[in-house]
Amino acid sequence: MQENIYIIHVDFVMSVGVGLLNVKHSFLLIGLLLTLPFRCEALDTGIEGLSVNGYGTLGLIYNDSDNILYRNSIEQEGSGHGFDSATESNLGLQIDYIFNQQLNFTTQFVFIDRPEQSFNNTLKSAFFTYHFDNRFEIGFGRLPNDVFMSSEYKNVGFARLWTHLPVAFYGQLAGESYDGAKLSHHFRLGDGVLTSSVWAGRSNFPYDSNGEAKKIKFEPNFGAGLRWENQTWLLRLLYSQARINDKDDPAAAFDDALIQASKFGWPEAASIAGFSINDTWLRYVTAGLSYDKDDWLVQSELSVVKAETSTHDKYASAYLSVGHRFGAVTPYFIVSKFTTLGSRETIPPAPAFITSYQRLQSIAQAASNGIYADQSTLGIGARWDVSQTVSLKAQWDRTWVEKYGDFIFEQKNQIDKQHIFNVFSLTVDFIF
To answer: How far apart are CA 272 and CA 263, in angstroms?
Structure first.
């Protein structure tokens, strides 16, 4: 490892991990400490086959909106107007043990600000990998959820170009791992390697609702993917499908009320019912590519989500990022879009003489507005590789949210017109 970079001992790492439970009061001080000329080295365990590594991001954002509560994912609690040091910050610890040439074990812990802190939420992966030969391998345990191009390093800020992943693409789906198994096959194709994989298991889908931790289950959860890569290109195609288990879904009772209303004076209400997601299927198709050659960095992903609900059952999202290295500095821009496929649903009027039906119609319209998506973001930033293990990034995001279109973001008051807001982010990313 080079001189003039950081040294972080295990006791410091764990103390920072505990501090992340109250990151809003500690990250600015830690960020200042990281600018000192130390070295960053992986822990030397002294045990053959055992390695301990880690990563972290110390971030600061400024949100200029008085109404939008910004967040990178629906799993997070939104951050309002002003500065926030929790949204972009995390700390990860990875432990690997190689038993022999065929079998190894990997576990990863991620400390991050979330509505509910628990060991199960912190444990992002814990799985065995068995290599039958150079072509076939199987993994089993808690595995990374492979729905994104960046799934395996989703929390590793140092591994990506931007201060944060594109919210319009990555923010709509939470749940970074699943408990199950994955079978992969590697095949030499042209000047690259083609990897095909199938996987199945069950997973939790955590999300935040007004500062309260919520969770639904994906059971079963399965999919298949193709990935081809060489030194310049990476191409990826994946399909996944999950059945939603949410027996406490309050929308089920609402659907029953609409069906009853259809029998007694409001026949259109039956066609509105279908807000409940319990025991429904969610289908996801995504394609991605990246290009890295002659100091040009290009990356893009496109996805379509199909849900079994009565309103807004299809969503599409995409982003395109282009950057160019100038020595240790890489300026870049990124554009992204997340939208409902189809127009915003307008709930038919209820009979004016029945007050309870009027209220049902109002709730149905508010629910329809709440799951509608139509947002676009332009991001401009730069990355400075301070050393082989530390990077400093700055980014400005300008987001346009159309009428009732902020499905990912929370808001203090629902806005019935287009609104625009800016987020400025500054991060220090490091690995050790």
So the answer is: 13
pLDDT tens, residue by residue, 323-362: 999 999 999 999 999 999 988 888 888 888 888 888 999 8
> Strand pairing partners for 373?
none
Looking at the domain assignment, is residue 253 inside a domain? yes
What confidence score (pLDDT) does residue 42 get?
A: 58
Number of domains in the chain: 1
DSSP letter at 29 equals H
Q: Is residue 1 part of a domain?
A: no
* Token code pair at residue 209: 């609702």
Confirm whether 234 is domain-assigned: yes
Residue 80: domain span: 10-431
* Beta-carbon contacts of residue 399 (< 8 Å; ≥ 6 apart): 375, 376, 377, 420, 421, 422, 423
- Burial of residue 57 (number of CB atoms within 10 Å: 0-12, 13-18, 19+): buried
The CATH number of residue 149's host domain is 2.40.160.10
pLDDT in tens, 92-103: 999 999 999 999
> pTM of the full predicted structure?
0.86
Q: Does 254 map to a domain?
A: yes
Strand partners, 225: 197, 238
User: Comparing C-alpha atoms, which of 126, 145, 157 is closest to residue 54?
Assistant: 157
